[in-house]
Structures are given as C-alpha cells and as structure tokens.
Design brief:
Layout: E1 6-9, E2 15-17, H1 18-21, H2 25-35, H3 38-46, H4 48-51, H5 53-57, E3 94-102, H6 109-112, H7 123-130, H8 148-154, E4 162-163, E5 168-169, E6 172-175, E7 180-183, H9 184-193, E8 198-201, H10 214-221, E9 224-229, H11 234-242, E10 246-250, E11 267-269, E12 280-285, E13 290-295, H12 300-307, H13 311-321
Parallel strand pairs: 3-8, 8-9, 9-10
Antiparallel strand pairs: 1-2, 3-11, 4-5, 6-7, 10-13, 11-12, 12-13
InterPro entries: AcnA_IRP_Swivel, Aconitase/3IPM_dehydase_swvl, Aconitase/IRP2, Aconitase_4Fe-4S_dom, AconitaseA/IPMdHydase_ssu_swvl
Organism: Notothenia coriiceps (black rockcod)
GO molecular function: 4 iron, 4 sulfur cluster binding; iron-responsive element binding; lyase activity; metal ion binding
Length: 322
C-alpha cells in the first residue's frame, strides 16, 4: 500500500506516494517524547473518582465475594468448582461410554453452542418457563451465557445440527438404552443420572468457526468425557483441553466409516497413568473391536491442565498455593 497509494503531485509535477510522506519511526518517537508525557496520564487518573458523578453514585455491594442472586436467570453461580479438592486424582480410563451424538464433518461452534434466540420448544425454554418467564422474555443464548443451566441446555440445540443417528438435521439425538428420540440435553441428563460416561463421534474440522468458550463448557456439563474426531479446529481443541474433555484423533486414514463404527457401540478408552503429549491410546468396543487414537494433548502444559481436570481447576489450585 505504501508503494501504490497515490497521494498527488508536488510543485514540480512529480507523483507523490504514501511512502514519500509517511513519517519515520524516529520522527514519531521524537514527537512522542515531546508531547506524550507522564503528567497527561496522572491528570486523568487523579480525576477518575470525581469526573463521572452518575457512575460514582451507583450503589454496589462491598463484599469480597459476589452475592449471587438466586432469582436471576441471567447470572448464576456455575458448578465448575463443585467438589474441587487440593488433591489431584490420577487419570481415569473411560469405561463403557455411550455415544451421545454421531456427527460428520465441519461441525461448527455454532452447531455446538448457538448464540441465537431460544426456541420455544427447547430444553432451555422449558427451564426458563419453570423459572416464571414467558416466551417473549427468553431472549438469546448469547445474552444468557452467564447462566450455566441455560447454556448447558442450549448445547447442541442448533436446528441445523446433522446427527447420523437420526439421518437428518435436528437438535435431537437417540437415547440408546431406550431408543427414544429427545433433545440432546435431555438425553445427556438421563445418561448422567445413570452414571454413564459419554463420548462424541465426529469427522473433520470439529469445532470450526468462531471461538466460543461455551462450545467446550457445554459438552463438559453434559457429561462428555471425550470427542473422537478426524481433525479439530485449533482453538476449539485447546478449549476442550481447558475443560478437561479429551480430544482424541483418529490415526491417518482412519475414520468412523473406515472402522465400521455405527455409534451404537459402548466405548472403553484406556488412559494410562503416565501420559506424554500426542501419545496413542487404545479404544475397546463392546463388540470386541479395538483400535488406536491419538490423544491431542499437544504440550506438557496441556497435560498439566488435564491432570487438574481443566484449566479452571488448575488456576484455582495454583492461586491457593500462593
């Protein structure tokens, strides 16, 4: 742009480009030293407490801990730290997990955690109705991201989610033990109540699209222990690690189709105590079939997060140590 942006002609009729008039770094620094001085910032900071009367007149609690309003449907104390102890637990294998969703390629973060309006026939809508709200007050998932009860119910609630179990687009799945079709959250709740772990099968580019923390938090709250996919979007894979959800990747050339996986099998994923980045682990099915996948903990730091049950637990423990 410096070489092609034409600024005009000079008094001699020669063409002048942006590169000819743009100040050098030395010239900019000279102006900064002369005019951008510390007293400018000190004057602003000294007036902070008096310059905005409306802001200063706001009444706010002085407690060190936030006083959660149990009546609020927008901000709710999250369950991420429930049962947290200072003692680390050794890695646990995943035994006899059911598949909650059997997905294909290019499942986006909007498929996983939509930000749009809350549908009237959704699990989230039923929850909000139980809290005394009418349909016109449901608002959007994006506006209620401070309420884990809404966001967990909104996970995989996108009407364009294609689930191979149903062979169509719908925010639903099949609860395999009963063969009932229901909202994804409702099926996950049944599995959780039965004490059964869950996994997701997916194809290429799982978690593509915009980065959304709830696309990892939501599956965690639904009891998802691992995702098995052909590939991951970089940031979403990192977010799964941060929530303690194991990102597993098929080996090159493998896929659910090539391995003959229907998603109706029970999955046992053998996690050894001694873990290394990107190591291979065994997956055993109740059909007798076995295959290997790669654990996508790519660094020692990510392994540390996993040992702590996620980055949130990791940070709390580190802060407690200090």
């Amino acid at each position: 742009i410096f070489n092609v942006s034409f600024a005009g002609t000079n008094s001699e009729g020669k063409e002048v480009f942006l590169r000819d008039i743009w100040p050098t770094r030395e010239e900019i620094q000279a102006v900064e030293r002369e005019f951008v001085i510390p007293t400018m910032f000190k004057e602003v900071y000294e007036k902070i407490e008096s310059v905005n009367e409306r802001w200063n007149s706001l009444v706010a609690p002085s407690d060190k801990l936030y006083p959660w309003d149990t009546n609020s449907t927008y901000i709710k104390s999250p369950p991420f730290f429930d049962g947290l102890t200072m003692k680390l637990q050794p890695p646990q294998s995943i035994h006899e997990a059911y598949v909650l969703l059997n997905l294909g390629d290019s499942v986006t973060t909007d498929h996983i955690s939509p930000a749009g309006n809350i549908a009237r026939n959704s699990s989230a809508a039923r929850y909000l109705t139980s809290r005394g709200l009418s349909a016109r007050d449901y608002n959007s998932y994006g506006s209620r991201r401070g309420n884990d009860a809404v966001m967990a119910r909104g996970t995989f609630a996108n009407i364009r989610l294609f689930n191979k179990f149903l062979n169509k687009q719908a925010p639903k799945t099949i609860h395999l033990p009963t063969e009932e079709t229901m909202d994804v959250f409702d099926a996950a709740e049944r599995y959780i109540q039965s004490g059964v772990p869950l996994v997701i099968l997916a194809g290429k580019e799982y978690g593509s699209g915009s980065s959304r923390d709830w696309a990892a938090k939501g599956p965690f709250l639904q009891g998802i222990k691992a995702v098995v996919a052909e590939s991951y979007e970089r940031i979403h894979r990192s977010n799964l690690v941060g929530m303690g959800v194991i990102p597993l990747e098929y080996l090159a050339g493998d896929s659910a189709e090539s391995l003959g996986l229907s998603g109706r099998e029970r999955y046992t994923i053998l996690i050894p105590e001694l873990l290394t980045p990107r190591m291979l682990v065994d997956v055993k099915l109740d059909t007798g079939k076995t295959f290997q996948v790669r654990m996508r903990f790519d660094t020692d730091v990510e392994l540390a997060y996993f040992h702590h049950g996620g980055i949130l637990n990791y940070m709390i423990r580190k802060m407690s140590e200090n």
